């Protein structure tokens, strides 16, 4: 199996817990849930297959089980599949659906002193008689074995993220498109609340009536403790870098595990939320850290690094750190990337184990995101580095993680801002012995837009590979505003939409198609992309070809990002072949023109 296929399949696996190593689960063809266990005392253990069906499936870290939910008329059946083989089935009645019948949209787990483990279902009421009438307002149903169901109809918008029986409150997170989510707290039952506390931010964890939230992202993400009953929001000092994630640890709300990104690499800290003291936990070579599971038994994370490969990490309640390798092994010939600044532009520099003969400048999407030490482009950097291609992961001006001023500086002046970033980077590459004629730009989504723009700005570059780029800012803004009107202001703040001149709008087909006559450009786009437009990419490639420019459009049936292992492999190969065509890398099978799409 190829690296992109293996990495894709591993990232789809669920980390359930730790028994001398990671306990993992994945869904096989046919719907069987396959649970795999690590060897014990050197003896392999047989995997366990769980046949699950129903309307929803939930992993319960507290009971180390999978729980399935099935709606059947006026009854709800709940089946708990414990990993040790125990099977428990119980059922309860459903309230009458006023309009027709219930559909199940979401399930979360809840704990209380009175009911123990319970579940909160988000139900929608479908009108089966009037076609096209849609669904009614969501209804929340709290169920627990041996207890009467509790019905709550939310008074505010949002998805239920936490239900607290002991405090008689439910927390709802409202998705607001380009804006920060809004967290609402409302009392359970019919009592009218004189004041409904709310906070901007993303919910991370809740315990004892207190929530751990991430606020003010993406320009300055901060961790905070939110007490909705007291209507207080207390921000926490977690040290340098931007907070990415966090969970409570232990039995109360006094400590949290916090993942922060500093200079392109994630770190893990145990933070005392009362005193503010933090203690770093050692995760050498982990690269990017993703929290996959949190329970009273510990917190599990998945790590990805270009040099370090993939790994699993388990942090116990006593803060002990355990580690196990993932499917992608370390590459001993490679070193971790070096974080540096080209003038005022930060970057991660991946140096090849041999003399560099070419370079790729990689540009993340967003734009409000950042390059990290991870297996970017499904591990393609490894192949490039072993071919002597130096990789610069550029956190261009406008990236998150470097403060609000850095993030907002290029707004409505992207061309001038990116010119400074690109000039500084190319100057550093010349000092490393690689000129612009041996340098390609690689970008995805908005990064793909910048890759095309870079070839307009600097016509001495070899060319660019742009995956799923945004190529018509006016059309993109209009489509987004149809989905959510708040996008109109979001785009208007960042981009010049009003100018009649393509070069002032910058991200316009006529402007982006004005690359150099010898620059090779490969645009890769999935026909089912619902984020950026395949049709817009076809337009900009057609404009370039009309001008006699060597542009190629490669397509497949994927979405904005690959959604299956074979799509991941196809995208990997097309990007690799595209870069080889741009750089004309000698001696490699990929040194051929990128093939057209189907």
Blueprint (SSEs and pairs):
Blueprint: H1 3-11, E1 14-18, E2 22-27, E3 32-36, E4 48-51, E5 56-60, E6 65-72, E7 75-82, E8 87-93, E9 101-112, E10 116-126, E11 139-143, E12 150-152, E13 159-164, E14 169-174, E15 182-187, E16 198-200, E17 202-207, E18 210-215, E19 222-227, E20 232-235, E21 242-249, E22 255-262, E23 265-272, E24 278-281, E25 288-295, E26 298-305, E27 309-315, E28 321-325, E29 338-342, E30 345-350, E31 358-363, H2 380-386, E32 389-394, H3 404-408, H4 414-431, E33 439-444, H5 446-457, E34 463-467, H6 473-483, H7 486-494, H8 502-505, H9 509-512, E35 520-526, H10 534-546, E36 551-556, H11 565-583
Parallel strand pairs: 31-32, 31-33, 33-34, 34-35, 35-36
Antiparallel strand pairs: 1-2, 2-3, 3-4, 5-6, 6-7, 7-8, 9-10, 10-11, 11-12, 13-14, 14-15, 15-16, 17-18, 18-19, 19-20, 21-22, 22-23, 23-24, 25-26, 26-27, 27-28, 29-30, 30-32
Distance between the termini: 23 Å
Structural class, from secondary structure content? alpha+beta
Q: Helix coverage percent of residues?
A: 10-25%
Sheet bearing the most strands, described?
A: 8 strands, mixed
- Residue-averaged pLDDT: 91
How many helices? Answer: 11
What is the CA-atom radius of gyration, in angstroms?
A: 26 Å
Low-confidence stretches: 586-598
């Amino acid at each position: 199996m190829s690296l992109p296929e293996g990495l894709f399949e591993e990232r789809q696996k669920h980390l359930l817990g730790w028994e001398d190593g990671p306990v993992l689960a994945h869904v096989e063809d046919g719907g069987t849930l396959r649970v795999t266990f690590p060897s014990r005392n050197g003896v392999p253990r047989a995997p366990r297959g769980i046949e699950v069906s129903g309307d929803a499936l939930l992993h319960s870290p507290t009971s180390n089980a999978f729980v399935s939910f099935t709606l059947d008329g006026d009854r709800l059946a709940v089946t708990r599949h414990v990993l040790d083989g125990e099977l428990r089935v119980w059922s309860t009645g459903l309230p009458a659906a006023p309009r027709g019948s219930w559909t199940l949209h979401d399930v979360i787990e809840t704990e209380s002193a009175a009911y123990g483990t319970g579940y909160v279902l988000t139900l929608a009421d479908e009108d089966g008689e009037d076609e096209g009438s849609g669904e009614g307002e969501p209804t929340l149903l709290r169920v627990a074995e041996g207890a009467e169901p509790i019905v709550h109809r939310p008074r505010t918008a949002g998805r239920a993220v936490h239900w607290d029986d002991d405090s008689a409150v439910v927390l709802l997170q409202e998705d607001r498109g380009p804006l920060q989510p809004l967290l609402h707290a409302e009392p359970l039952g019919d009592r009218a609340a004189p004041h409904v506390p709310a906070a901007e931010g993303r919910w991370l964890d809740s315990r004892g009536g207190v929530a751990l939230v991430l606020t003010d992202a993406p320009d300055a993400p901060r961790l905070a403790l939110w007490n909705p009953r007291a209507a207080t929001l207390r921000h926490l000092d977690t040290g340098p870098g931007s907070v990415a994630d966090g969970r409570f640890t232990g039995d109360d709300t006094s400590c949290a595990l916090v993942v922060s990104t500093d200079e392109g690499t994630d770190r893990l800290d145990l933070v005392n939320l009362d005193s503010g003291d933090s203690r770093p936990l050692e995760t050498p070579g982990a690269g990017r850290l993703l929290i996959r599971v949190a329970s009273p038994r510990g917190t599990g994370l998945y790590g990805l690094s270009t040099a370090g490969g993939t790994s699993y990490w388990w942090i116990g309640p006593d803060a002990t750190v355990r580690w196990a390798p993932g499917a992608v092994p370390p590459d001993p010939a490679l070193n971790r990337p070096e974080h540096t600044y080209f003038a005022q532009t930060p970057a991660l520099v991946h140096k090849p184990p041999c003399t560099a003969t070419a370079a790729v400048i990689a540009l993340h999407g967003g734009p409000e995101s950042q390059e990290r030490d991870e297996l970017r482009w499904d591990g393609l950097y490894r192949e490039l580095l072993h071919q002597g291609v130096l990789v610069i992961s550029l956190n261009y001006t406008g990236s998150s993680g470097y403060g609000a001023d850095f993030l907002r500086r290029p707004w409505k002046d992207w061309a001038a801002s990116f010119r400074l970033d690109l000039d500084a980077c190319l100057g550093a590459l010349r000092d490393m012995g690689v000129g612009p004629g041996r340098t390609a730009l690689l970008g995805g989504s908005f990064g793909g837009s910048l890759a095309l723009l870079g070839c307009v700005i600097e016509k001495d570059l070899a060319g660019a590979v742009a995956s799923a780029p945004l190529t018509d800012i006016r059309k993109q803004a209009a489509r987004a505003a149809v989905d959510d009107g708040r996008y109109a202001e979001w785009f208007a703040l960042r981009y010049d939409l009003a100018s009649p001149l393509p070069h002032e709008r910058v991200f316009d087909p006529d402007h982006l198609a004005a690359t150099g006559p010898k620059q090779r450009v490969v645009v890769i786009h999935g026909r089912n992309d619902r984020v950026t437009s395949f049709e817009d990419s076809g337009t900009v490639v057609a404009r370039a070809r009309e001008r006699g420019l060597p542009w190629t459009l490669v397509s497949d049936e994927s979405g904005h990002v690959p959604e299956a292992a074979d799509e991941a492999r196809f995208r990997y190969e097309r990007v690799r072949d595209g870069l080889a065509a741009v750089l004309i890398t000698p001696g490699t099978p990929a040194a051929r023109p990128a093939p057209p799409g189907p």
